[in-house]
Write a sequence for this structure.
């Protein structure tokens, strides 16, 4: 009993003491990991809230509206697959599908061909190269805005620049925006004019082609076309695939330029005579002009499925024409 206080004193002296110069005990890894995760979620919370409120929520609501009769004023009424059956039986809907497919099949390849051709020219060392790159890329910075569509409509209207140029060469075709057969060509010209974004991507891909391959081809006596076909095109095929995929998806989403160039509001949206009636434009007409929001939602989901199928086909086809370096796939 007499040695108990001394034993307790020695035990207290043996305990580690944390003074001002003693490093603190390291925190538990699990606790530190939870704190880091919490901080990450706090920084991500604005994006998560925006995704749930502005993307996921509206998508879920539109999926429900696709099976209802909804006109923005009355409560939605469940009608099952009636919207889809009305859609497939609508001649204007089938016309909008044909116009959109024509625009995608014609506009996308022409835009990519122009972008690749200009990229090949700009990849060569020449004086003023930076200026030319900036000048060709400038239209893509503007984007498919309403102001550009208004100016484009004025350029291709009656007695405007294009019409006067045609008459100077003896072609009296009139304004393109007033002709149901020519208005779609003005939209193709607009998308081709904005080839700057894929051009820059092509330029980046051309810079990655090893110069040794071209030197070996020169030794073998290969011409320009053969070098392009056997060296340049296979080496930039991943970049080409990326541009094809991106521009195809963008072509399906065309709206503002078709709506403005085609006539805008006032009962002549995407005209004349539905000449520029692309899919998204007819979706707008059904949803906001005809107040058939349920049918418009069904059309939107049908467009999503179509774009997903086209994307799957492109990914499936890349095995045949896209060449990756070892380990790059």
């Amino acid at each position: 009993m007499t040695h108990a206080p001394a034993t307790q004193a020695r035990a207290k002296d043996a305990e580690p003491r944390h003074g001002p110069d003693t490093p603190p005990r390291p925190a538990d890894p699990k606790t530190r990991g939870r704190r880091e995760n919490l901080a990450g979620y706090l920084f991500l919370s604005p994006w998560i809230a925006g995704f749930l409120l502005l993307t996921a929520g509206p998508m879920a609501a539109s999926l429900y509206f696709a099976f209802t009769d909804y006109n923005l004023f009355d409560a939605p009424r469940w009608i099952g697959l009636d919207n889809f059956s009305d859609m497939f039986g609508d001649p204007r809907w089938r016309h909008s599908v044909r116009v959109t497919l024509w625009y995608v099949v014609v506009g996308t390849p022409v835009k990519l061909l122009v972008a690749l051709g200009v990229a090949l020219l700009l990849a060569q060392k020449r004086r003023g190269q930076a200026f030319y790159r900036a000048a060709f890329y400038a239209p893509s910075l503007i984007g498919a805005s309403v102001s550009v569509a208004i100016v484009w409509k004025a350029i291709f209207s009656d007695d405007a620049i294009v019409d006067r140029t045609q008459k100077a060469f003896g072609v009296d075709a009139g304004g393109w925006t007033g002709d149901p057969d020519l208005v779609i060509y003005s939209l193709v010209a607009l998308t081709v004019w904005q080839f700057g974004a894929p051009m820059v991507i092509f330029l980046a891909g051309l810079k990655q082609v090893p110069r040794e391959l071209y030197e070996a081809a020169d030794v073998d006596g290969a011409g320009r076309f053969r070098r392009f076909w056997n060296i340049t095109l296979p080496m930039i095929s991943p970049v080409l695939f990326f541009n094809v995929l991106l521009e195809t998806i963008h072509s399906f989403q065309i709206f503002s330029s078709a709506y403005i160039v085609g006539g805008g509001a006032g009962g002549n949206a995407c005209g004349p005579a539905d000449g520029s009636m692309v899919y998204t434009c007819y979706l707008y007409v059904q949803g906001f002009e005809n107040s058939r929001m349920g049918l418009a939602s069904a059309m939107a989901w049908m467009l999503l499925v179509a774009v997903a199928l086209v994307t799957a086909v492109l990914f499936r086809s890349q095995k045949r024409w896209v060449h990756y370096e070892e380990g790059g796939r």
Notes: The domain at 82-321 is CATH 1.10.3720.10 (MetI-like fold). The chain has a mean pLDDT of 85.
